[in-house]
Write a structure and sequence with these properties.
With 287 residues, the chain is of the alpha+beta class. It folds into two domains: 181 residues, SPRY domain (Jelly Rolls, Sandwich), CATH 2.60.120.920; 70 residues, Herpes Virus-1 (2-Layer Sandwich), CATH 3.30.40. It contains three helices and 17 strands. The strands form three sheets. Strands 1, 3, 4, 6, 9, 10, 11, 13, 14 and 15 form a ten-stranded mixed sheet that branches. Strands 2-5-12-7-8 form a five-stranded antiparallel sheet. A two-stranded antiparallel ribbon has the order 16-17. A hairpin with a 4-residue loop joins strand 10 and strand 11.
Length: 287
Amino acid sequence: MTNKENGEHICGRACLGPLTFHPGAVGNKITLSHGNLRASRDLETFQNGLVFSSRPIGVKEKVTVKVERTLLAWVGAMRVGFTNVCPTTGPLPSLAVPDLTSRPGYAALPLPTDDCTPGIMVTFWVASTGQLCFKTSTGKQGCVETSLDLSQPLWAIFDVYGQTTTMLLLGSERIHFFRKTLSCPIPRSTFECGYEKTPPQLQRKMEMAEKKLKQRLENQRNNNHPRQQNGQLLAHVPGSNAEDLCVVCLVSEARLAPRCGHRCLCLPCANRVFAEFGTCPLCRQSI
């Protein structure tokens, strides 16, 4: 409720208490503002955008965020989830999926890119069955199974990933026996939702990388064709089969495959492709 004399909010029985992003558990490319309710990621990267709730979230307590800004230069969109691990227990990795979800006590899912455009609101929660569920203001919804321990505290996970560059935490609500309780109201915001312009430095970097990648793929295709001289087929140069080589460097053996299944990268090139593109160099599916 609100003190009408000075406008100060006072929690009562119908209030879940304040809820913000955790100022002590922030990815190294994230900036918090608007009373730790707005999380903005550096436009030069698609990762290192992890943030968490400032307090544990109850089972069936629904958390809602609003996508405010989007940058189409990247692939994929925000990820959401929950964890039994206190967010301040250690250094944060670059990504929620798969960096966190490969560890015990974490569950997160990527949201559909088309349903994370500016102005869209996303609500997510842990059901009494332990499922991680979400729904968007566009009508998209879904649930996934988790191994979260519902007897232990749960903190919300937000990954300001890919095209999603800024999100606003709108609060939470919980319905118990037909009674709705809400988190503390948030300050009014006049922040403009919309699309970011690709920074010139990032645009040049992506164009140069794309040009180099196209050239290497073209060289690979040329090397895969049998060469002819005076009407006679020439054998390939001894060595590894071109189809087994990394499509980026064309030197080392391709040992790694992104989520799409294309085994096309060596380890050094995979690290660079993951960091600079976030997509498979063959099919462009998000990694």
